[in-house]
Amino acid sequence: MSTLYSNMRPAIAASEAMTLPQRHYTDPDCFQREMEAIHFDMWLCAGRANQIPNPGDYFVRRVANASIIIVRDELRDIRAFHNVCRHRGTLLCNQDEGTLVGRIQCPYHAWTYKLDGALENAPHMNKVEGFREEDYPLNAVATNVWDGHIFINLSAHPVPFAEHLAGLDVKFRPWRMEELELVERRVYQLKANWKLIIQNYSECLHCPIAHPLLQKHSHYMSGDNEPPHATYLGGRMDLRDGVKSLTIDGTSLRSCLPGLNTADQRHVYYYCILPNFLLNLHPDYMLTFTLWTRAVDHTEILCEWHFHPDEISKPGFNAKDAVDFWELTNQQDWELSNRAQAGISSKGYRPGPYSNREELLLALDRFVLERVQGQRD
Amino acid sequence: MSTLYSNMRPAIAASEAMTLPQRHYTDPDCFQREMEAIHFDMWLCAGRANQIPNPGDYFVRRVANASIIIVRDELRDIRAFHNVCRHRGTLLCNQDEGTLVGRIQCPYHAWTYKLDGALENAPHMNKVEGFREEDYPLNAVATNVWDGHIFINLSAHPVPFAEHLAGLDVKFRPWRMEELELVERRVYQLKANWKLIIQNYSECLHCPIAHPLLQKHSHYMSGDNEPPHATYLGGRMDLRDGVKSLTIDGTSLRSCLPGLNTADQRHVYYYCILPNFLLNLHPDYMLTFTLWTRAVDHTEILCEWHFHPDEISKPGFNAKDAVDFWELTNQQDWELSNRAQAGISSKGYRPGPYSNREELLLALDRFVLERVQGQRD
Amino acid sequence: MSTLYSNMRPAIAASEAMTLPQRHYTDPDCFQREMEAIHFDMWLCAGRANQIPNPGDYFVRRVANASIIIVRDELRDIRAFHNVCRHRGTLLCNQDEGTLVGRIQCPYHAWTYKLDGALENAPHMNKVEGFREEDYPLNAVATNVWDGHIFINLSAHPVPFAEHLAGLDVKFRPWRMEELELVERRVYQLKANWKLIIQNYSECLHCPIAHPLLQKHSHYMSGDNEPPHATYLGGRMDLRDGVKSLTIDGTSLRSCLPGLNTADQRHVYYYCILPNFLLNLHPDYMLTFTLWTRAVDHTEILCEWHFHPDEISKPGFNAKDAVDFWELTNQQDWELSNRAQAGISSKGYRPGPYSNREELLLALDRFVLERVQGQRD
Fold this sequence. Notes:
homotrimer; alpha+beta; Naphthalene 1,2-dioxygenase Alpha Subunit, Chain A, domain 1; Rieske Iron-sulfur Protein; 2 domains; seven-stranded antiparallel β-sheet; 10 helices; 24% helix
């Protein structure tokens, strides 16, 4: 690990490390290009496998103008489909989550699909010359699962999932994330471009100013990043002496996650698996954020707290200390991200210089530019 | 009639009868082209002549960005004008309906027009060299009346009204619609393109799924369409044995409309006179829908129930059975139309195949494409 | 004065003096061009110097997408800056007004600026090769003060302020505006293009129809305009016999402003200093409107009532008679401006003819066209 977390910051020259021009945060066409090159092309974290334990259980996620059903099929495999009937385009599932009894039926004309997406019944279409049900399955979206996290990919030719994970599965195996269970969820609507939320997440220079409680539990200069990777950005910070976890009072009645070594019991890991998954690993719980782009200046965030079932089952289990800590910290960050959007959108904005503790932000900008320019060719 | 309602469905090949591409339902430019080629070029049903019985009575209708005053003039003729002062463009009538006392006066500078649109008084303009009042009448909109239905046409060169009606006036003469009176009105705002509302209206394949009560009163397979016509689409369905009309319980205390023969007392006629008028003729009442396009994904619908004055004047007359039936059925249809808009707008939408019981929808699509392409030349 | 206020109206030929085409009131691109050529290029009245009496006092004004801080610095000079941090573009001041304690600090990463805009502290940037604090002051906006009115100019090369005032400072010196103090403020949101508000302000033909109380206190034909000037449009109207000022009942318990001669005690002056400042001088008070463009069809108006401190300090001082008079009159004008926007935006709008008592409106239109066309070259 010592080679990864070296605390050796790269030297950044002021003339070469500037924030992006305004249009990247305000222009709907730029947004559309980013969606095509990034969100519609890469693996997105959609949620947790144990949120849909039984066949027919499903939830719906929306990214830009796409609506996707994630469902467990009869063979207990996880499938994803565009939430659109192949007949006349009606939205199939109107609820954010629920259970489908063995099939997906359009409420308009009763076209009926199996949970694997195959068209099973299309009333009155037998009279249509040349119509074949096998030509009209639901439009499938690729899926994969890593340690309990469901990923989807809207591309027709998804990059191999292992290439996307790039070894993170090995790195985070000790946390045994697959075992963890969702306890609490908050949904936030931000008036901010998705990149500003990742930028806010990827540096702790703002922590002493914006997050006094976080700063009390972990010194902001303890943040130590990996060199940026093609598909993720991240690092870890140290808990101060006497602090057990990021909770309101820095204590925790919960045991540490069972697989952690002594060193990892003293760190909080903050990783952004590009482009939509923020993974925060604490000694005793996992916090996840999934970002759902809505428009160039609007992002929905699902924030979820996950705990080990051994702790959940204990009498007196209570997640409030962890939930309240992050609810407070989140509100501070969302306020700053909204203010960044407001300022960058205004006439007076000019690209400004990054410090060399903002190297992950520079890496994000370069990732976006390369993706979008690569797509154009 | 037997030749018109043949129940001989055309054979449709799957490869040739697909729904329209997404842009026709989401692109503001497509919408604007449709407005120019269709709604601003064809006859629109605006309302009923007996809603403005006396000189000065008026109502206002809006289609896309046009606002039109429909008014009865001093000679009791029905006139229509753009609702805009010729001086500095002020909106003249701010209310949806009312009575003008002998003239239309702009509230800004008191330019005053006669009810026939002529500019009567333009204060202080007499000092302007070359100004002539006859050069500034209200911008007129063509009008016509068919059996009590007022039609307007925003084109500078409207197609002859008889050509638009194409014999429907003869066909529906027995219903003596002119005599009928408005009893109830509902206004609905749909998040749906106008074409989706006509499509929903033009097939009953969805009836057994979406409209159990309608299906109880009339079997959906009884629907029998005329071959599509250039300016209208329609057909009729049979009432089941023992059902007197489309009401909550299928009975009716009202007599049938006086001119109907025995056969027409057993049918409900559903006609779409393109592009904005849905006419539903029941044995004992008339239901009308007029569609008012607001944006590519927003349509206002005025739904009105009309009855014969002989029935209205009877003690105990009550329209609730008919109003409640359609209020229920409308809500089911609007929900489906909104869901169609949501699905077609989403990334996963692809054109899908029509069945041969959806021949009127295919005819609508072809009508739209021909109109819009014809306009471009 | 007699040469200025001649009541000699120019002869206007109907064919040559028409209102502008629709796009000037509805097209976002037209709006953007007007902002660049006019609001971002000319001097704008921002408020009053005595609203920020002490170092650190500030208020924020927004014009189109620009957000500007106006602040009094440590040397008691008035400064203006774009409200955007030079680091990552965060909006600096979130409140409309307040007091900064000696510096402007970004809430995100604590970049800190002196009240003269100099960057004082940029944490962690000392590690960045080639970074110099003097390269990143706040983006300055030019300022000037005329008789207590603060003006700002967003252009990189502002026209000399004296050229903009064009002698109005001499003309209005007797009113001693610098001494006057703000007593009441109202903020209005209009669904109208900014030009419609100036047009409404620049003629009184509508007064007998829309403003019966104003008409009772001052005959609308007494309005007498100066020939239009490159940077302002204006004139004056006479108070009727027995009327002391524009108040609800036409009386006033206040003394006239101390510098006025007998003639000016009988007039109300209405000047539009282009493009955003409407200045109404009454015998006993000053009424100011500043217009803040938000979008092609949205303008915010700040309306403020200012009185002489000698009167304010008198026992029983009460501004209600003047506030209520204009609150009533404003509402009548805003309603008309909103209706003008609605009508001009509609399909039926055609440019219409100006009377020769609307010569200031024609001058405004020509000013706009010249500015926008000049910018394009």
